[in-house]
Automatic annotation (TrEMBL), chain A:
Coiled coil: none annotated. This is Gas vesicle structural protein. One of its GO terms (cellular component) is vesicle membrane. Belongs to the gas vesicle GvpA family. Its main location: other. PROSITE patterns: GAS_VESICLE_A_1 (PS00234). It comes from Kitasatospora phosalacinea. It is found in: Gas vesicle.
UniProtKB/TrEMBL annotation, chain B:
This is Gas vesicle protein. Belongs to the gas vesicle GvpF/GvpL family. Residues 128-149, 180-201 are annotated as: Disordered. GO terms for cellular component: gas vesicle. Its main location: other. GO terms for biological process: gas vesicle organization. Pfam families: GvpL_GvpF. It is found in: Gas vesicle. The keyword Transport does not apply. Keywords: Gas vesicle. The keyword Disulfide bond does not apply. It comes from the Bacteria.
Amino acid sequence: MSTPTPWRGNGAAPAYPGTSAAPQPANLADLLERVLDKGIVIAGDIRINLLDIELLTIRIRLLIASVDRAREMGIDWWEHDPTLSSGDRRRDLAAENRRLRERLGELEAARSKEDAGEADADAGPGAAEPPPARKGTGTRPRRTS
Amino acid sequence: MTHTWLYAVAPAGPDPLPPDLPGGVADEGPRTVTADGLLAVVGSVPTPDFDSDTLQRHLGEPQWLERTARAHHRVVSALGGRALPVRYGTVYRDDDRVRALLTAHADGFRAALAGIADRTEWGVKAYQDRTDPDEGDEEDGAPEDRPGTAYLLRRRSARDRADRALADAAERARQVHRTLAGLADRSTEHPPQPPEATGVRDPMLLNGAYLVHRSRAAEFARAVTGLQRLHGPVLRVELTGPWPPYSFADLPIGPSGPSGGDAE
């Protein structure tokens, strides 16, 4: 087995091929994940406890707190994310639109069942009033599959 | 009055510290404490800021935490790969306690140092790439005169497509991990980071860390490039590092270690 190599004072990290020369500042989330381990540190004479949930909260708050730094690093997602910027109204509209379209789909589904029923009723005697202007019914074969 | 913050442990040698070590978590100049053939890189931090309660409170302050976490990382990184990184926030009452630690766990430290010697940590994250959801894929047979029904059908098929795409991407991420783990001495997976922490909304499917021997570093880098190409349109594979081997530093002083802050 290899034994630990003695300390060497020059501190030069070995060059690894395939990596860019200039080290970039570590992504904060990556860094915290590593230096804080699993979010719980108990070491030395002083105990620090960071529960996972708190760690996540800290990350988020860190990111929000360091907006300027993040911009420098090219991170500006919150400016485009409607849930995080002032796009609340846009999100509401999108949600409403979705609800309406779903409701429309349900209504149409119900309607096609009724259509089937009505077709029978129309054929029967005693249909006093003609249905109001239902163009197209019967002129075009409707596929039901 | 000061406490002693521990950055890293290395084998003691004839050479002093790298001359240009950056300032530490309290802007102090890092120094060394030696015992039993081992060398601890430490810093003197003011007790009022680093006693248990104050430290705990500081950790809730984002700027403070970021500043000190980066400072800790800078010192550890500057040690150049021979040192066993110690977790952020490892604080002793004084240097004597650090010497006692080195002596008490000399064998454990030596074993841990042997495990990371000539190796470095790489991080590989993989995100599902959802930039290409082929939205325009129209369903045949969707009733055009029933926009609501057509909408529901479209949504259902889009949802099915999304499920399949996610499952495919997740399987590819597992392949990526298996391939890279095969090139590493050790590997581990961190929990995927949430979008709030990464700023990337695509789901993270792999957050791996790999301890790679120097002799295989080039091969590892090539493998990552190959995997990026192989899984290109489905998975976005990102390489970070080299890191100090934080994820593989088996310190004998962790929560399960024998000296988890116990008094004597």
